[in-house]
Structure formats: C-alpha cells, structure tokens
UniProtKB/TrEMBL annotation, chain A:
Lineage of producing organism: Archaea, Methanobacteriati, Methanobacteriota, Stenosarchaea group, Halobacteria
Name of the protein described by the UniProt record: ABC-type D-xylose/L-arabinose transporter
Keywords per UniProt: ATP-binding, Cell membrane, Membrane, Nucleotide-binding, Translocase, Transport
All residue ranges annotated as the ABC transporter domain in the record: 4-234
Family classification: Belongs to the ABC transporter superfamily. Carbohydrate uptake transporter-1 (CUT1) (TC 3.A.1.1) family.
Entry-linked CDD domains: ABC_MalK_N (cd03301)
Gene: ugpC
Nucleotide-binding among keywords: yes
Annotated catalysed reactions: L-arabinose(out) + ATP + H2O = L-arabinose(in) + ADP + phosphate + H(+); D-xylose(out) + ATP + H2O = D-xylose(in) + ADP + phosphate + H(+)
Membrane topology type: Peripheral membrane protein
Example GO molecular function: ABC-type transporter activity
UniProtKB/TrEMBL annotation, chain B:
GO BP annotations, alphabetical order: transmembrane transport
CDD domains (alphabetical): TM_PBP2 (cd06261)
Keyword Cytoplasm annotated: no
Keywords, sorted A to Z: Cell membrane, Membrane, Transmembrane, Transmembrane helix, Transport
Entry's transmembrane regions: 31-53, 96-115, 127-149, 169-187, 225-246, 270-291
Keyword Mitochondrion: no
Family the UniProt entry places it in: Belongs to the binding-protein-dependent transport system permease family.
Name of the protein this chain belongs to: Carbohydrate ABC transporter permease
Domain ABC transmembrane type-1, first and last residues per copy: 92-291
Matching SUPFAM superfamilies: MetI-like
Protein's membrane topology: Multi-pass membrane protein
UniProtKB/TrEMBL annotation, chain C:
Gene Ontology CC: one annotated term: plasma membrane
Gene3D superfamilies attached to this UniProt entry: MetI-like
Domain (ABC transmembrane type-1): residue spans on this chain: 85-299
Family: Belongs to the binding-protein-dependent transport system permease family.
Topology in the lipid bilayer: Multi-pass membrane protein
Protein name (record): Sugar ABC transporter permease
SUPFAM superfamilies cross-referenced by the UniProt entry: MetI-like (SSF161098)
Taxonomic path: Archaea, Methanobacteriati, Methanobacteriota, Stenosarchaea group, Halobacteria
Length: 376, 306, 308
C-alpha cells in the first residue's frame, strides 16, 4: 500500500490540454474521489496514474517512487473500468487469475487469493462461468475481484458504477465502502456523480477544465466551497446565486442591494467584505437552507411567488420568482402546503451564506465561513 | 385423423400462420413470403441439381433425348474417370496448396496489421488505410499484363528462381494482391468492435503490447479470423483469370482451369465436366451450408462498415 | 523483473506498429503498387510479336484502341471500341439492375419474421460461393442447344416445338450471360442489403404502423433511409466487379457469336493474351482502372458521403 502524489501534472492531446497542472496528495489508505463534469480531465488523470497515458509534464509518485517512465504493466496498480473490461473468452476464475499469472505469482498464492476474493465478494458460485452469463451487478463484482486479487498499491476505478441501475448502484456503493474499510487499499475513484463522490470519499477533489478546483473532506468541501464552480457542482438542486451591489444600510451595516429587495450581510463577514463596497457581489445559498417564513418576523425575509411545486418524497422543491425577478429554488419540508402563484416570504439560514466575486468566481468569505463551521 | 389435424395445426402455428393468434393480413403476408422464397430457392437450385444429375449419369446417357431430369442409373464412373484419365488429383492438390497458402499469408498479415490500424494512431495511418481501400478497387484483370511480365521474369529474386510462370508460387503471390487488402480491412473493422478497455485491462494485468495482443485480443478475434480465412480461401479456390494467364500445365493449374479444359473447340465432354465442376464446387457448397454466418459477417464487415 | 528483460519488453513494444504494419506494406508494395506502376509503364510500349523488341510509342496504344484512322487520317471512334463498350454497358446495366431489384425483394422477404429464415438464407447464398467457371459452364449446359435443360423443359412440356440455339444468336447469347450473371451475383446483394436492414430500428416500423403508413410508405420513409448506405455499397461493388469479370463470358461465349458478347474484360484478355499485344492490353487495363475509379467517384457524389 502506498500514497500517491501528483506534482504539476500536465497532459496535452494534440491541441487540447486535458490535464493542466494538477497537484494532489492522495494519502495512504485513503479513498480519494475525482469528481467533475465530463471533459474536466478526471479520467485522463486516472489514466495517467495507471500509466495508460504518458504525462506531458509533471511528476507522478506511487509510494516513494517516481513512476512517470513506467508502463502500465510495470506499475503496482489495479484498475476497474466503466464497462468492466472482463475478458469474454475467459471464465470468471481465469479473469481473476490472469493478472497474477502475468506477474509470475506462485500457484498456491493465486489459488488462495482468488478463493479469498471470491468469498469476500460472494461470487464463489460464479467462478466457472463466462462474463456473458453474468448480470451487470455480477460482472461488476468480478471486475472488483480481479482488482482485489492483485493486492496492488493502488486501486484505480473509472466510473465503475455508472452502468448499473439505480438500485444496484446504491447497493454497490455501500459495498465499496465496506470493502475499503476491510482492505484499506489506497483508492482513486473517478465519477461525475456528486452523490457517489460524497458518500464514498474520505477525500474529494473537484475538477473542472483540467484543474483541481478544491480538495478536502466531502462535507467540508460541500459546506465551504472555494469558488462558484464547486458551490454549484456539489448539491442537488444546486446552490442559488443572487447577484447584487454591496453597500451600507442606514445603520452602517453591510447590505447587498438586489434591486427591488435588499439582503443584510451577517456581521461576521464584515471584515472580509469591507473592501468590496460599491462592487458587484454574488450571494450563494443552498436550497435546503431556505425556509418559508411562517412566524411573522419581518426582518431578513424575501418576498417571492411560487412558480413550480415539485414533491420529491423526502422533501419538496419549490421554484420561486423573487420580487427582483431572480429565480430561486428552495427545498422545504414535504408537509409544506403551498401552491402555484402563492406569495411567500423566504428566510435564508444565516449560518449557511456564502459570498463570491462574480468576476473570478472565488469565494470572498471562505476563511470566516470555514472557521465558523469548525468552532460551531 | 384427429392426430393428423393437430400436427397440421401445430405446423400452422409454428409457421406463424394461425389466424386465431395472428392478424389475417400478417398471415397473408407470411404465406406470400413463404411462397415466393420457396419458388426462388427452387429456381436457383435447379441448375445445381441439373449439373449434379448430369455428373452421375452414365456419360452416354447425358446426350439422350428426351432429357431425363431424374437420375435413372446413378453412377460414380464420371468421377472415377476424371481421376484416371486426367491428373485431377494434381489439380486438386494445386488448388488446395494455392488457396490455403494464400489464406495463411493474408490472415496472418491481415490480422496483425488490422489490429494496429484499429488501435494505433501512427504517422500515415489514414493515408495507408486509404491506399488499402483504393487497392481493393483495382480490377485484377487490368493487371494481367504486368503480372504476366513480372512472373515470367521476376525482379530481385529472378536470379535465384528463374521464371515463376506456371508455378504455384506465382498464383499465391498474385492471389494475395486482391485478398490481402480485403483481409486487413475486415480485421480492422473486426477489431474496431473489440473494446479498447480490454487492451488496457491486459496492460494493467501486466501484459506488454505483444502479450496483450497474443494472450487476450487474438483469442477473442477467432470469429473475425475465421470469416477472413473462409472468404480468402473461397476467393482463391475459385479464381480463374490469373490461373488462366499464369499457368499452362498440371504442375500449377487449379480446378477451375481443369474444369474449363473439358471444353474443346467443337466438343464439350459434359458428363465429365459436370463431375469436375462438382468437385470444384464442393468446398463452396460445404462452406456455404456450414459456415454461412462467417461468410455473411466477413462480407458485411468488409463491405458495409466504413 | 530484471532490467534487461524490462528494456527488451519496452523495445519490442516500441516496435509494435512498425513490425505489424511494415511487412504488410512491403508485401502490398510488391504485389499491388509495383504491378500497377508496371501497368502504366507497359501501356506506353509496343512489343514486336516476332522478335519481342520493345519500342516506346507514347499514347499510340490508347489511340489505336479507341480511334479509327487510316494513314494518319482521323475517322472517329473505332467501331470495335464503340460496340464493345455498348455490350459492356448492356451487360453490366441489365445484370446489375435486375439482380438489384431481385436481391432487394428477396432481402425484404428474408427480413420478415419467418420460421426457417436461416435455412432460406443458406439456400440463397450458395450460388455466389461456387467457382464462377463452374457456374458459367453450368449455365452453358442449361442453355445448350440440343441437350440443355432449358430446351428440354420447353420442348418436352410442349411449350416450344423446336429447340432454340441460344449461343448462335447475339441477343440470346447476351441474355444467357445476363441470366447467369444474375444467378451468380444476386446473393451478394442479398447479403449486403440484409445486413443493412438489420440497422432499421424495429420501433420505427411499429411507429409507422401506428401512424397508419402503408407498405410503400413504410419502405420509403423508414426502410430506405437506413438502407441507403448498404444500397450504395452493394451497387458500387456489384458494378465494378461486373466490369472486371471475365470468367462467365469466357467460359460461356468467349465473346461470340462473332463479337456480339465481347465486353471489355474479354477484349482485354484477348488483346493481351490471345493476340499477344501486351502494350494494348496494358492500355486497356489503364482505361478499365480509370473507369472503375470514375464510377466509384460518380456514385459517391450522387448518393452521398460514406466512402467505399
């Protein structure tokens, strides 16, 4: 087992820069998820670690060894592909044995490892079958089994659950979690599904445009996005952004002018936002941090009209028009009884506000917000 | 009687002609389809049947009037006689050697090259592939003059071998000219259908390119190789024009030539010709009956796919 | 793993493409490129049939084949060239169009959900797999004037009172050739079109039926658009293979009676091999090559994009 380190990693294809100077530390025994929209460079990064692509520039370390010049077949890694890539002409057992045989492993060790992995994954009764005779979920297990028997320094997984149906995906997610607890092998996992990323990872790296936007523990990144991309990418429905001009109210407190409505900035952000008075600033608020004001307190509420009511079972998502003509989404209690065209007052949870620079997209309040969360 | 009715009923149901279970217009269409297909099959198989019964008639009975369409006195004498009176065992041997050697060369080169064309984006990949496609369009008959000249006096190796005219080697070399581009093309298209992640998995499992190709990809390519091999074999076995131009004796002449030799200027020995023709047609008929799916897949891989 | 073994593996891997593509390219250069260049080279020489001496004649070979002239006076196109070209057009045109229509019909029937489809498919493919020589001679036997099956059937059933000498009449001989050609090559059309029909999504047929589209409307609006690429391939290959095909003509009629079934392929063979005029044979080969590429270019410009 080993840690993996990427330093200023670059990969160029003809005229496209797929990976643009990534540095990432993947600690030993961690489950690190690279997440981002398609084309963000996450799969290329994984393939660079695997040795399936050659790095244009930068450094890849597995353990303490720089592996840039090693071929995939020389690196101590195992990979699970999106389409499983099981050899169709080999049985499950042969599929699992093949990698070990290629590495000149002794026969008794091969047999032990295959037996162990098969037991762990509950695929013992499938060992003599061929991939075509297996269901998608079973193929997925075999692909995992093939990686496990290698006992590699690093597992690499490229969207391994995306070909499964929704129910099976949730189930396999839980199993992957359990498996990692048991084996503790360093794992790098690529997905575009943020729910998968949040539930599996103990470290998450959000990528966009070939660059890492933010790295950290999933809950930390979720609550404290460093920029608007990360803020918008994680969470469903995604974070609302309201743009306005920062100014002062009659008492001299910071206030965001949203047009026909205003928003009072909590006092703790005063220091960080002081310098932006007179500039455009974006307020970020997650739908689940918006509630309907029902107890009649007038301060800090925003009048809005309900446009769409979308009950989702465990919550109800409302699409609303603010008086300022901005559209906003709120996730509210399923018992809430509102209808289309109702006029409501929205209250923003004042502990969950974020402020961004609309030009750069960077968070203006990251420092204060994350400190606050830690002390809270 | 009732059992008869129920078997008839089962047959009708099995053919999808049961009006209780299918729309009447569907049943009507199916009936017409069966009828037309049956008629077509009868018409195209009739000549094969006729040449077959000609081959088992006593050679004198072939010229009987009225013509008999049934094998009244079946005999294998025509088959025996062509091996006795003509060197048919040599013709057959020549055909076998030429067709199988050509097939071996084309399948071997076509497989490895088709794989590289499918997987690697090397310099000139597109241009070379295009030249292979273009090569398939060259009409072989256009090249009978240069091939005759080249084989009569081969460059580079001419000093070692002398003339290659009337040798099996000349035919093998010539037949690769139209089979090799085809083989590369079919195999490239076949490998295009094999997911690249299998190559990558092999690499992850510790295989070099060669090991991955030999241990993983090649075993999976068996159906494609079979299709290529069967087609290359049939094309070479059936070839006539170059055999006519490049050979003149039984040391290299193949079965198609042997069959055509039954035609003399003013007389055709139909009974023996029919027997020889059946022998020449045998591999084709067998391949067609037993390996039809390979022929179909090879042709469609080779033709329809880009 | 030892470093030598590792470096050997890497070196072999680096050489993978050159080692897998190189031999084939050399082979192709030897058996395709070289003979093709030699064809162009041969087409501008004249070989003295008596002493075998070669003489550079420029484009005289082409000129002699295509144009009629006497004493340097230009008299228009050569009659042989005109008539042989016409025979080729008739032969190829009728064979291809009839076998295409027939093949399309059979393919549509075979695409239906019928029991025994596999059996039918096997049965219709066989003619294409037989040696063309054998098929040609078989049809020559079928059409034979005294003992052939066709005359036998027609007279013994009382449809005809006297037998027909098919190969003594230019038009009938051409008809016999065309029938044999259709018999041999229709399976190819069927195979290609059947594969194309597999690309039509089943749901579109269902949708068309729900929309109330009739059989013809279904073919035009659903089948044809998906079948178009296959039609193009089938027609292209069929045409260029028919132009080059010597086997059937040579064993059935040898271009006769007279020159009434002489086509380009047989003309080329006769010129080069029978009359031993390699320069003119090569010139005809060049023309055939050019015509083939022109036909492909035209078909793809008329029908659209997908390359052969």
């Amino acid at each position: 087992m080993a840690h993996v380190e990427l330093n200023e990693l670059v990969k160029e294809f003809d005229d496209v820069t797929a990976v643009d100077g990534i540095s990432l530390d993947i600690p030993d025994e961690s489950f690190t998820v690279l997440v981002g929209p398609s084309g963000c460079g996450k799969t290329t990064t994984l393939r660079l670690i695997a040795g399936l692509e050659r790095a244009t520039d930068g450094e890849i370390r597995i353990g303490d060894e720089v592996v840039n010049d090693q071929r995939a077949y020389e690196r101590d890694i195992a990979m699970v592909f999106q389409n499983y890539a099981l050899y169709p002409h080999k049985t499950v057992r042969e599929n699992m044995r093949f990698g070990l045989e290629q590495h000149d492993t002794a026969e008794d060790i091969i047999q032990d490892r295959v037996a162990e992995a098969a037991e762990l994954l509950q695929i013992e009764e499938l060992l003599e079958r061929r991939p075509a005779e297996l269901s998608g979920g079973q193929q997925q297990r075999v692909a995992l089994g093939r990686a496990i028997v290698r006992d590699p320094a690093v597992f690499l997984m490229d969207e391994p659950l995306s070909n499964l149906d929704a129910k099976l995906r949730v189930q396999m997610r839980a199993e992957l979690n359990k498996l990692h607890d048991e084996l503790s092998t360093t794992t790098v996992y690529v997905t575009h599904d943020q729910v998968e990323a949040m539930t599996l990872a103990d470290q998450i790296a959000v990528m966009d445009n070939g660059q890492i936007q933010q790295v950290g523990a999933p809950t930390h990144v979720y609550s404290n996005p460093q920029n608007m991309f990360v803020a918008g990418f994680l969470g469903s429905p995604s974070m609302n952004f309201l743009e306005g001009t920062l100014g002062r109210d009659s008492d001299g407190k910071l206030q965001l002018d949203l047009g026909t409505d205003t928003h009072d900035v909590p006092a703790e952000f005063a220091d960080e936002l002081e310098g932006y008075i007179g500039e455009r600033v974006v307020l970020g608020i997650r739908p689940e941090n918006i509630s309907l004001n029902q107890d009649g307190i007038a301060a800090n509420v925003h009048p809005a009209t309900v446009q769409v009511v979308e009950p989702q079972g465990e919550k109800t998502v409302l699409e609303l028009d603010l008086d300022t003509d901005q559209t906003i989404k709120a996730a509210v209690d399923p018992d809430t009884t509102v209808e289309m065209d109702d006029s409501v007052n929205l209250r923003f949870d004042r502990d969950s506000l974020q402020y961004f620079d609309p030009q750069t997209g960077e968070s203006l309040t990251y420092e204060t917000a994350s400190e606050q969360k830690v002390t809270a | 009687m009732s059992t008869n009715q129920s078997t008839l009923g089962q047959l009708i149901a099995a053919l999808g002609l049961d009006t209780d279970n299918e729309w009447p217009h569907v049943v009507r269409e199916r009936l017409v389809a069966y009828g037309l297909l049956g008629l077509y099959v009868f018409v195209i198989w009739f000549p094969i049947y006729f040449i077959f019964i000609t081959s088992i008639k006593p050679s004198g009975a072939v010229l009987d009037i009225p013509i008999s369409f049934l094998p009244t006195q079946p005999t294998v004498s025509n088959y025996v006689e062509i091996f006795q009176n003509r060197p048919f065992e040599l013709y057959t041997l020549n055909s076998l050697i030429v067709a199988s050697t050509t097939t071996l060369i084309c399948v071997t080169l076509g497989t490895v090259t088709g794989y590289s064309f499918s997987r690697y984006d090397f310099v000139g990949n597109k241009a070379l592939l295009l030249s292979i496609v273009g090569a398939r369009m060259i009409p072989p008959i256009a090249l009978i003059v240069p091939f005759f000249t080249i084989m009569s006096n081969p460059p580079l190796i001419g000093g070692l071998t002398g003339s290659l005219y009337d040798t099996r080697i000349a035919l093998i070399l010539t037949y690769t000219f139209f089979n090799l581009p085809f083989a590369v093309w079919i195999m490239k298209n076949y490998f295009d259908g094999v997911p690249e992640s299998l190559d990558e998995q092999a690499r992850i499992d510790g295989c070099s390119r060669w090991e991955g190709f030999v241990k993983i990809i090649l075993p999976m390519a068996k159906p494609g190789i079979a299709a290529t091999a069967i087609l290359a074999f049939i094309f070479s076995w059936n070839e006539f024009v170059f055999a006519l131009v490049l050979t003149s004796s039984e040391q290299a002449q193949t079965l198609p030539i042997a069959v055509s030799l039954f035609v003399a200027d003013d007389f055709v020995d139909w009974a023996h010709l029919a027997a020889g023709g059946m022998i020449a047609a045998l591999p084709g008929i067998l391949f067609g009956l037993f390996f039809q799916q390979y022929i179909v897949s090879g042709l469609t891989q080779g033709a329809v796919k880009e | 793993m030892s470093t030598e073994k590792q470096s050997l593996r890497r070196t072999l891997d680096r050489l993978f493409v050159p080692l897998t593509v190189g031999p084939t390219m050399l082979w192709i250069a030897a058996v395709i490129v070289y003979p093709t260049l030699k064809l162009f080279w041969s087409s501008v020489f004249w070989t003295n049939p008596i002493n075998g001496q070669r003489e550079f004649v420029g484009l005289r070979n082409f000129q002699r084949l295509i144009f009629a002239e006497e004493g340097g006076a230009f008299l228009g196109l050569a009659p042989d060239f005109v008539s042989i070209t016409w025979h080729t057009i008739v032969y190829v045109g009728l064979s291809v169009s009839i076998s295409f229509a027939l093949g399309l019909g059979i393919a549509l029937l075979l695409d239906k959900d019928l029991k025994g489809r596999g059996w039918f498919r096997t049965a219709v493919i066989v003619p294409w797999i037989l040696p063309y020589v054998m098929s040609g001679l078989m049809w020559r036997w079928m059409f034979q004037s005294e003992y052939g099956a066709i005359n036998g059937l027609l007279t013994q059933s009382g449809l005809l009172s006297s037998k027909i000498a098919f190969f003594s009449d230019g038009t009938l001989a051409m008809m016999a050739l065309i029938i044999a050609d259709i018999w041999v090559f229709t399976p190819f059309i069927i195979i290609i079109l059947l594969a194309g029909l597999q690309n039509v999504p089943e749901q579109l047929y269902d949708a068309a039926e729900v929309d109330g589209a009739g059989r013809i409307s279904r073919f035009v609006n659903v089948t044809y658009p998906f079948l178009k690429p296959s039609i193009l391939v089938a027609l292209t290959i069929r045409i260029i293979f028919d132009i080059r095909a010597l086997d059937l003509v040579w064993v059935m009629t040898q271009g006769g009676p007279g020159k009434s079934t002489e086509v380009w392929a047989s003309w080329l063979y006769r010129t080069a091999q029978v009359f031993n005029r390699p320069g003119e044979g090569a010139a005809l080969g060049v023309v055939l090559l050019a015509v083939t590429f022109m036909i492909v270019a035209v078909l793809y410009n008329v029908f659209g994009d997908s390359p052969y």
